[in-house]
Specification:
By secondary structure, the chain is α/β, with parallel strands linked by helices. The protein has two domains: 211 residues, Rossmann fold (3-Layer(aba) Sandwich), CATH 3.40.50; 257 residues, Aldolase class I (TIM Barrel). The protein contains 18 helices and 16 strands. The strands form three sheets. Strands 9-10-11-12-13-14-15-16 form an eight-stranded parallel β-barrel, surrounded by seven helices. The protein has a six-stranded mixed beta sheet with strand order 5-4-3-6-7-8, sandwiched between helices. Strand 9, helix 11 and strand 10 form a beta-alpha-beta unit. Helix 1 packs antiparallel against helix 2, helix 9 packs antiparallel against helix 10 and helix 13 packs parallel to helix 14. The longest helix is centred in the C-terminal third of the chain and has 20 residues. The site of 6-acetyluridine 5'-phosphate (6AU) has 16 residues, from strand 16 and helix 17.
Length: 476
Amino acid sequence: MEDKLKAFAKELFKIDAIKFGEYKTKIGLMTPVYCDLRVIVSYPKLLETLAELMIWKIGNINNYNIICGVPYTALPIATVVSIKSNVSMVMRRKEAKDYGTKKLIEGVFKPGDNCLIIEDVITSGSSILETVKDLTNSELKCTDAIILLNREQGGEAFLKNNGIKMHALFNLTQLMDILQEANYIDSLMVQKVRDYLATTKVDESLLNKNVSQNRLKMSFEDREKLAKNPVAKRLFEIMRNKQTTLCVAADILSATDLLNFAEAVGPHICALKTHIDIVEDFNPNLIQPLQQIADRHNFVLFEDRKFADIGKTVEYQYSKGLYSISSWAPLVTVHSLMGPGVLDAIKSSDGAKARGVFLLAEASSAGNLISENYTKDTIKMAEQYPELITGIVCQSPLFTNNPGFIQLCPGVQLENKQDNLGQKYNSPLTVVLEKGADVAVVGRGISQAPEPAVAAEKYKKILWNAYLERIKTRVD
Ligand code: 6AU
């Protein structure tokens, strides 16, 4: 294969795909060497060789369910790679068509499919990241890109900072060596290109313009600045200060047990989620000591009321009645089912000013009737209320381009995969690394453990390390 690679480099030179002189790159840098792979469509045998070399370089191409070429030059390359490897392809539109479905990604794929990016030349990496942004917005997973030529001008590091590992057939230096050895270029030109590589640096500000804000790769500190809802800001702050993304579900039937439980797990949690209407001996006097515990241990009280009625009724349920939720719970859950009137009701009801909503977009229970469109429309509804919405309750990495929202993921347990009433569980590692959870809700995994405080600490540590792992730049 190494010989094939060398022969291929020489062919590229012969067809003028690699030229020497004075050229301007896409982002405005002058360069003595220019690689124009557009001509390759006129040389089918070479295109075929390029595809074979890429498949060889990437190793196990069957790790990917989908491939995508960066438009436009890499589209024919990706097509041939797809045919040769039998891995299906999607196409990214540069602009969504302004009629019909407005899809940015054409082709058949499933959320979570692993997509390999294909590109001809990398200078800054910005074109690849534009494509990655659209793919991840469509819920495809992108971790690797295969490239014909790395111009060694910072693109590889820039991709790495954004979670993409680059695999290149050649560096510019290697390519120059092959061409010099074949006497296609002289030492003067080689020196000129070497000097150019040593002195040219891609302007960081040009690069940063294109950085995609993928919440899954961002720190809570950075995301806190982008949150518009005051409770989201507070949660981000608590999470990074206490180093915990654990929310416990305190589904406990007695007032005394609830207080004891809150006191025990308090040091390890960012939020305590209640179903206050299940407390058999509920009395409004329960609220004050609960608030004191929350203040002492710095966590948020979160009433999981799942409001789902017309706005006016929700206003009463939220701010009146025995529970007077808005007076003590800064956070509540809401169903999008009944429309935005519910959110308007929460926004305008009496009660404490700093309030936030987790909107339910997906559920952890088997056989739930939530459809893909319902989920998508729920996210859209949330985006209409950035000041009110703390985040989304869901089971998959949605809204990756909206780092100000928090993903809350219930159905988390180490011991069991399900209960006997349809609840489904994932492990803490899975929910953070695969499902996109920022905050994980653990109920019975902690409340029914022999020592809830010990269990809470254990979950806290696993979840926090998984978060650190997720935002870490890939170094391999
Ligand atoms: O860990 P568990 O199964 O003991 O408790 C899970 C908690 C319960 C549910 O009411 C809640 O999480 N929940 C939610 C929430 C938070 O709204 C949504 C969902 O889809 N699944 C789920 O279990 O208190």
